[in-house]
Each structure stands twice: as C-alpha cells, then as structure tokens.
Design a protein that fits this description.
Blueprint lengths: L3 H7 L6 H11 L2 H4 L6 H12 L5 H14 L3 H8 L2 H11 L7 H11 L25 H11 L14 H8 L3 H8 L9 H5 L8 H14 L6 H5 L7 H5 L10 H6 L17 H13 L4 H9 L2 H11 L3 H15 L23
Helix pairs in contact: 2-5, 5-8, 7-8, 8-10, 10-13, 13-17, 17-20, 19-20
Length: 353
C-alpha cells in the first residue's frame, strides 16, 4: 500500500484545485528532504508538476518551487529540460508581463540551462508580447526582459535577475558567445553591450552572472579588438570599475588611467563579492592573450589597480588571479618584427575548462 506521503504526491494531479493547492504546498519541503518520492512511476509526479505551471498562480508557485529543487538531480533535470512543449510554455509565461511567478520561472530556467542541450534555445522563436517590443528570437526576448525588467517596470512582480545565470551557463557554448558578440538586426545592438552595464548593479545575482558572461565571451580571441575598442564593446571600464576602491594613486598613475577611473568619489567601494572580483581579473587575463591586449592594458595603467586589489582584498583566489595577471603585464615583450614576437607562449594560450 502507498504511504501517506506517496498518496499526498498523487493529489497534485487531483481535479479539485483546492486539493491540488494543499498537496503542492505541503510537498515543497519534501522536494529537498525526500526528493525520491517524486521519482516514482517513471517520474510521473514530475510530469504532473510540469502541467501545474499553468495552474492558478498559488498552485503554480509551489509546483515551480518543487521543480527548482528537483532539477538539482541530473535525471529530473534532463527529463524537464528535454521537454520541448514544456519549455515553450515556460518561455511564453516568462515573457508575459502579468506572470505572477516570473522570477521562479527564471530560476527554473537557470537550472535547466545546466543541461548542455538547452543551448539550442538560441535558435528558438516565439511571438513576443507587444509590451516587450522585442524580436521573434527567444534569446533576444530574454535579453530584453533582463534589461527592461530590471527595475520592475515591465512586470511589477519580477526583477528577472536569475536570467543572468541562464546567460552565464549558456555562454559556455561557442554558439551562445557568438550571439552575444553579433549585432542584432532588429535593434542594431551587440547583445553584450546590453549586459555589460550591470557589472555594478545592486543585485549580486546580476553582477555575478554578468561577470561570468563577460568572461565566457572573452574566450573568443578574435573578438578581443572589439572588446577593447571604445567605439564597439569598450568593456574595460565595466571590468575595472567593480574591482576599484577608493584608493589614491599618484598623479602619473591616475592620468594614464581611463577617464572613467580618474575622478571616482571618495566613498567608492569595490565589489564586496570576492568571487566576482576574481572573475573580472580572470577576464582581464584572458584579454592579454594578444600582444595588442597586453599593450593596451599597460597603456591605460591597469597594473596599479591590480596592485591595490591584490593588497586590499583578503582572498586567496583573488590574489592568485592578480599575480597571474601581473606576471603577464610586467614581463618584457619581444620587439615587433622579432622572431617569435607574434607567437603566443604555451602558457598563454586560451584553454577552456
């Protein structure tokens, strides 16, 4: 005979919405404490939960929360992420400006993005809501949702911060990087330029996700000239400002820095998250892959900023990242035209992990 808990799981498919609501609400803690109860009968309870994301908002809230918890399991993750119909419903609901559970849907999508096959979403299309004023490509809609929804004006019940994690996980794939680095015809904007402005956002989720997106796209070495060009991506101010504090530099060091870093207020604080600082420093190291990148960083006095970051941030990961970057910036370069001058050293080649 089924246990009481197994019977409760069965009630999430009950035709009476009141019973579904009570069942779903009471099952939320068990999705972390006893997730195996949802995996019986070839994941039938998970199948029922997927239907509930279109239910009454209160029922859907509990169902989505359970799915978020359950998708930490690889079997459940693949079962959910490979369901094209479910993905279409999720994406349609997510961009709806009246969706009450938009943030939870973004969290679920962030979990689903850990399944490599979700990278195909870059080619997926759906009709955008008029309120979003976006493009038929779903990825453009998600990006516009991330930007326009940041202050709660698109959907008063959502900030869409967790889309940063969606983009961060997916940007590990070359085709997603290319999307972020390719100007979109519908608005004539390179997507990474929409993302970079959030490196100093109040939300640590946004900052962390955006830092990872920038780092992942920096693995595309042919795009480095655009990254450094002030008229194209111009990424350097957006990387350097978060790792800069209120330190005072001598006049010569200050005058050589980018204009954005020369007149900072006395209460300027570097990012409080050490992982974010480390990610930005690692991105700078990636951008030293070419001679042009190294020369540019020396020209704009990146070294003093890294020196102070190494001195003032009490974190081993940050210090090691700073030391690796300094080793590259402070070494002697072969003269232009000399044998080997344009060849990368073995320890400088970009290797993805």
């Amino acid at each position: 005979m089924p246990t009481e808990l197994e019977e409760l799981v069965g009630f999430i498919a009950h035709p009476n919405p009141s019973i579904r609501k009570v069942a779903a609400e009471n099952l939320v803690p068990y999705s972390t404490e006893q997730p195996s109860i949802f995996k019986r009968d070839e994941l039938l309870p998970v199948k029922h939960l997927k239907f509930l994301i279109r239910d009454h908002p209160e029922i859907a809230e509990h169902a989505i929360t359970i799915l978020i918890n359950l998708t930490s399991d690889r079997t459940v993750l693949e079962y959910v992420a490979t369901d094209e119909r479910f993905l279409g419903i999720l994406l349609g609901n997510l961009v709806d400006p009246s969706e009450a559970n938009a943030n939870l849907l973004a969290m679920l999508l962030a979990n689903m993005a850990k399944w490599d096959g979700l990278k195909d979403i870059v080619n997926r299309k759906q009709d955008p809501p008029k309120a979003l004023q976006s493009h038929e490509l779903v990825f453009n809609q998600l990006l516009d949702l991330f930007v326009k929804g940041a202050d709660g004006t698109y959907n008063k019940q959502a900030d869409f911060d967790y889309l940063a994690y969606v983009f961060a996980d997916l940007s590990k794939h070359p085709e997603i990087r290319q999307f972020f680095l390719t100007k979109q015809e519908y608005d004539d904007v390179v997507p990474i330029n929409k993302i970079k402005v959030f490196t100093e956002h109040k939300s640590d989720i946004r900052r962390k996700g955006v830092a990872s997106i920038i780092k992942n796209t920096a693995f595309d070495v042919p795009a480095h000239p655009a990254f450094l060009d002030e008229d194209q991506i111009n990424i350097m101010p957006y990387i350097l400002l978060p790792i800069t504090g209120n330190e005072e530099y001598d006049e010569e060091e200050t005058m050589g820095m980018l204009p954005d870093l020369q007149l900072l207020p006395p209460d300027k604080q570097r990012d409080p998250d050490h992982n974010i600082i480390q990610t930005h420093v690692e991105t700078l190291t990636l951008l030293t892959t070419t001679r042009e990148g190294r020369d540019y960083m020396r020209r704009i006095n990146v070294y003093p900023i890294i020196r102070e970051t190494h001195l003032r941030v009490d974190d081993e990961g940050v210090r090691e990242a700073c030391e690796r970057l300094v080793q590259v910036l402070m070494r002697d370069e072969a003269e232009p035209g000399a044998e080997g001058a344009d060849e990368e050293d073995d320890d400088e080649r970009v290797v993805e992990v």
